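Changelog note: in this version the structure field was regenerated for every chain. One regenerated record is shown below for reference.
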Amino acid sequence: MSKKILVVDDEATIRLSLVEALSAEGYSVEAAETGEEALARTHSTAFDLLVTDLKLPGVTGLELLQAIRNQGQQVPVIMMTAYGDVDTAVAAMRLGAYDFIAKPFKLAAIKKQVRMALKVTVEATRAAARVVPSGAAIVAADGATTDGRYMQMIRACPGLAKIARILEKVGSSRSGNDTSILIQGESGSGKEIIARAVHEMSGTRGQPFMEINCAAVPETLLESELFGHEKGAFTDAKTRKEGLFELAGQGTIFLDEIGEMGILLQARLLRVIENRRLRRVGGKEELDVRARIVAATNRRLTEAIDAGEFRNDLYYRLQVVEIDVPPLRERPQDLEILLNHFIREFDSQLGLQTEPGSAALIELLQRYPWPGNVRELKNVLKRIMILEEPKRLQPDHFPAHVLEGRNPRSASRQQAVGSATGMVPLAEVEKLHILYVLEMTGNNKSKASRILGISRQTLREKLRLYERQQQAAAGMQADQAEV
């Protein structure tokens, strides 16, 4: 049976071109013009892949992705974005998008992305039969119950030993789901892993684990997602909808980026936590709240309180147990464990047999500050495994800035990107992006052209153009100096 793909774009030319190109590859392709239409189709049809634009009228690509994840669907999503939307595309990756591709793109490039996304999905499905489900415990040979895979990961990392001890106490606590937990740490440091480990250690680990990113959903939609709504509660409320608190049952609800929640919604969340009861939007019936609440933020909420952006009383209700996750740069001893864990994960997904990282490579990688933390390490390795399919990882597989131990977000690049958000021609933004990808790949034009989705010939032509521009600018400066 052919794979089913949904293409979502409000530009008819792009939408129809993708439908035609992907249909020619043997896929069963449907198209939607808006996020609302796409969401409706996902209710009635099980798709194997979504290809969607980020900027859509009404429900955006990010909101579409979040809604799909809230429904429990793990269908891979490829985001299409203009060059100026790279930061938004990164946000999409954090929400679980498979990858993004910059517009304008070559059809050959997006066909390759589709093949890789579907391949990874197939391999992951096969591997799932050999892996313990995330919410389950592992049973040892003697019948004793041991930790789930998230708790095992935490125990394996020396830099998380303090957190492991906290989770042990939380898991054995008699207070159970009445104990709220607040996880604080930089973006990408592993807060979701901690949250899932909390769920594994609870006595209700067989119940659902429901998560939502509060920063990625508009406040009006966030209220409905959390608490549900009754039919007719607002214009688009065609049917009754259960919220995540209801769907979680006696399990866990994970409120990621809680610091971005609006003040009014914070007040309602506080009442729910205090009373352990809620009413759907537009409803009169009160429902019991039985789920444990785990919240996470990359902000210091005490600073948000001082700024009047977060309620002091809600903060103290959430941080009954407070967990601070250290950034990866402060626990370099964990890097080898994480790297080899991700190697095994991608080997399983991609059908590879990659050897563990050597001591010399580990030492080299430990010199880099990893500003994007564990997520950055995983994403860098993911690209290497997909593009290179290495038998053994070598230093030259990694971007130049990683090998040199320097943060790519240098002051000069920040200034350039900052300028790109103003009145700067699109060609200049494209130039910055191309030069950045070249830097990331160690000036490897073959790798850079694959990532950019253009041919090597096109890349060479653009680089020659940039060189001519630089020479012309230097000539003008020389002429001015002579005058």
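Spot check on this record: The chain has four domains: 4-128, 138-326, 329-403, 411-482. Residues 456-482 form the longest helix (27 residues).
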